[in-house]
Amino acid sequence: MKIHYIGNQTAGLIGKLTVLSQGHEIVDNINGCDILLCVHGRKIIPRNIFSLPKIASINIHPYLYAYKGADPIGRAIYAKNWKASVGCHHISEDVDNGKLIYEQYCDVIPSDNRADIYNQLYPIYSDVIIKSLNMLEEEYMENLKYFINLV
Question: 39 and 60 in contact (C-beta within 8 Å)?
Answer without folding.
Answer: yes
